[in-house]
């Protein structure tokens, strides 16, 4: 039974989510897509079951932290949590369909490609399964019938990154997009353009990190006036740092999201800052919200997203954040 005392604690957590300042975990060497037929992580908790279906990939440092948050919330709240990840939108839709067929009590879904998931999510809603969207697809969340969206408004985060780079005296920015079809990445670069001004974009493939590094190096060599690189992923950031060294470029690197390499690079001064969307909360908070919705009819956000970012990690606060990144919660 969910006691009054525990309900008050959960409500406090949910309230805290509304006032969050609007990335992180063990580093990974690659990010190959997992198969939609792969088994979920072991279910945790009690009879209320939630399926978490993300566009992350197996072993990815960022999504490991989301998974950690969701599973910890399941343990804390006695909720069964099954975590699935697949970078292919079609496979992700099938994972959602499978969860609906199994009549889960709630769904948590990231929407890097909202249109590919629309039918599956709307079918879940029609089946009476509450859905919370996370991380990507904020603009489509309410339209698809989700009860809440938890994440970072990517355009605003890009604006913040652009402002910081401009304040650092940078004049020409290369924004590196590493995942074709992910609307959030384009929104980040577009946001940076709004506040920074002189921004060009470069498309690379995160699944081929050697080629990504070569492409960044080539861009810096062909345009020596580029003095800043904005990576949209912690693994790409490490490649960008190496590319700048190889190109003998003066460009400094900033990035979205944290991992162990980014923490070390911020301490060493080779990365200026990381935009931190606190993805542990993107895993944890939706489980809280689904619990409150099921047991108390609560909704959150008033139709607006619950913001987990952007926060910024630089030399001024890296020593505080580093231990949390080490344990897989930032």
TrEMBL record:
Keyword Nucleus in record: no
Protein location? Cell envelope
Q: Which GO terms describe its cellular component?
A: outer membrane-bounded periplasmic space
State the name under which the record lists this protein. Answer: Sugar ABC transporter substrate-binding protein
Residues of the signal sequence? 1-21
**Pfam families for this protein:** Peripla_BP_4
Q: Which family does it belong to?
A: Belongs to the bacterial solute-binding protein 2 family.
User: Please, which domain of life does this record's source organism belong to?
Assistant: Bacteria
User: In this protein, which residues make up the domain named Periplasmic binding protein?
Assistant: 50-291
Is Signal one of the keywords UniProt gives this record? yes
MF-aspect GO terms: carbohydrate binding
State the UniProt keywords alphabetically.
Answer: Signal
């Amino acid at each position: 039974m969910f006691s009054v005392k525990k309900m008050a604690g959960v409500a406090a957590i949910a309230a805290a989510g509304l006032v969050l300042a609007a990335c992180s975990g063990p580093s990974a060497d690659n990010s190959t897509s997992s198969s939609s037929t792969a088994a979920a992580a072991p279910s945790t908790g009690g009879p209320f079951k939630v399926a978490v279906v993300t566009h992350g990939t197996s072993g990815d440092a960022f999504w490991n932290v989301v998974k950690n948050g969701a599973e910890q919330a399941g343990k804390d709240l006695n909720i069964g949590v099954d975590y699935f990840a697949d970078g292919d939108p079609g496979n992700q839709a099938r994972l959602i369909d499978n969860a609906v067929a199994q009549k889960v009590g709630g769904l948590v879904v990231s929407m890097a490609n909202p249109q590919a998931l629309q039918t599956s999510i709307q079918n879940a809603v029609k089946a009476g399964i509450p859905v919370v969207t996370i991380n990507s697809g904020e603009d489509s969340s309410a339209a698809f019938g989700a009860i809440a969206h938890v994440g970072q408004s990517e355009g605003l985060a890009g604006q913040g990154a652009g402002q910081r780079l401009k304040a650092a005296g940078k004049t020409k920015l290369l924004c590196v997009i590493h995942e074709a079809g992910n609307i959030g990445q384009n929104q980040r670069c577009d946001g940076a353009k709004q506040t920074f001004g002189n921004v060009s974009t470069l498309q690379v493939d995160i699944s081929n990190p050697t080629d990504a590094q070569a492409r960044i190096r080539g861009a810096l060599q062909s345009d020596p006036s580029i003095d800043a690189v904005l990576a949209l992923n912690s693994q790409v950031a490490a490649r960008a740092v190496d590319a700048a060294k190889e190109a003998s470029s003066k460009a400094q690197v900033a990035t979205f999201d944290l991992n162990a390499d980014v923490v070390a690079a911020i301490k060493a001064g080779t990365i200026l800052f990381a935009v931190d969307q606190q993805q542990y909360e993107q895993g944890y908070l939706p489980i809280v919200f689904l619990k409150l919705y099921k047991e108390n009819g609560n909704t959150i956000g008033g139709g607006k997203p619950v913001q987990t970012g952007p926060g910024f990690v630089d030399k001024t606060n890296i020593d505080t954040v580093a231990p949390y990144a080490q344990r897989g919660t930032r």
